[in-house]
Give the backbone structure.
Amino acid sequence: MPLHPRQARWFEVRVPRDQTVHALEVLAGTGSVQLEEKGYQTAPCVDADRLQRQLSRFDELLRRYEEDLPSDEARPTPVLEEPERLATDSVQRLQVWSSELLELKRRVRTLEKRREELTLVAECVSAMKGASGELVSMEHATRLLYKNIFFCPKGQIARPVTDDRILTEIYAGEAHDFWLVVGEPERHGVLDGTATLFGCSPLRLPDWLPPAPEAQERELATRLNELNTALKDRRRELEKHRTDAGIRKAIADMRLLRWYRDITITQTPDHTACQVTGWTTAPDPDTLQQDLAGAGITATVIFAEPRGDLRPPVQLSTARWSRPFQLFVRLLGTPGRTEVDPTPLLAVLIPLLFGFMFPDVGHGLVLAAAGAIMARRVPAAVILVPCGLAAAGFGVLFGEVFGIPGLLPALCGCPLEHPVETLVITLIAGVALMSLGMVFAGIEAWWRGEGSTWLLEGAPVIVLYLSAALALVWRPALAGSAIAIIWYLAGVGVLCKTGAGCMLGRLGHLFESALQLAINTLSFLRVGAFALAHAAFSVVVLELAQAPDQPALQALVFVTGQAVVVVLEGLVVMVQTTRLVVFEFFIRFLRFDGRIYRPMSTPPGARSGQPEDSP
């Protein structure tokens, strides 16, 4: 179980300008690279203004043609050209595509309009039932005679004009009514106004319409079939245009360039190439060099010392089983490179503390199931799974199943029957945890090169603490306390070179540390207290459930009470577990002076090479 955070190394990559986009894709895909926002050079390697102009045009085209663009985006192909040129070419391709799209849509609309007009004419011919030969003469109006035929909404018109100087006839079609009118030219305005009032529109008659009704039907059917075929071809062409592979690639490339735009890339000092700088958890430069070379990228990778103002990030434990418990560490910050990473230990410690305070097979399994379900929406809820299973395990030891006595044998006895033993066990656990925290502090001092100082000042505190705790049950252990005090005083004498003030300060520190340790240790009594409270709460719920006379009410009270126990007590126990870990354990050895390692995000549409168990 590694306890040392993995410190990232500073790396520099020199890469040709036309390969920077693909190089960044490859680096992001490794999952082992974090770029540094503070670049080493002031000269950017990309014309950001030119790139941004093309991205703005791309966004405008996306907004304008959102409904026509392909829904499935192509995966970006390796970009081996200058990003500004790629952006310009991609936008130009989009502009040409959009112009062709508009022309195709215009053709489709024209064919649809012609089909609609001929469909109305065919309906009119069918409605006139052999009298449609008169339609041919409707196209030959004279100065002395007004002729027209209107199509109207079904049932909206019925002999709207009664005038001896106007001849009208209404024919009922399947979807429309057709109104044929003939009259004097001066009646033109009245007739057109009446048609508009009833929602009618003039029917456009083709000039090729034959005079015979049978010939009209045949010709209309032929023309409609031709229109349907042409329309189907144009729609197929339009759909093919919408899913064009070239346009899908252009969209993917532009979204890749948007991701690329937000990354700081600078020129090398000789202005002949681009330089990518940042942090990596790769074991050596050759690992990154091989990844880049495998993608056909000519690059040089080196590990170097970073500037003094840059603080290396650290990577905490990334094992799948311990990763959710990073949440507790990050409540206060990130351990530095010379601090212990307690994440793997928390994966064991937190479920044990939680389970001891909430020991019940039924409640634990309910919590574990709830955590598994909630984790789909709230990933942090997965912590409830090991905590619930631990609670179920302690429930087996204490014979607790929803507080119902006798369902399981109490292998370790019921907490209510052994309250003193329960509290003593938790007190011993507190002493062990506090001691472990001080040992971690010694390990950190050794990593910082301050091991000799810790041996003189920190180590005797551990001996004093353990001997004083042991003396509560075994008086001879006080001799160890005396030895620890002498040890500490001797160490203070060696460390203090400035006189009495230093010695008094360190003695005050010893008194403060002893008082804090005593208070923090006593805080662990709450673990046993909550175990007792849980058992008492379960008894209360059973008593309340037995009060009603009706079985249905008894069941309702029992289920409601168990739900209250799971939700309310589970929340309180989790808060207490967090408090013990953060404020009693962490303060013994953590200073949180580090910053977390965050691998760079992968571009849109690309598969991440980042391992599943990375943060």
Observations:
- The CA atoms of residues 76 and 253 lie 6 Å apart.
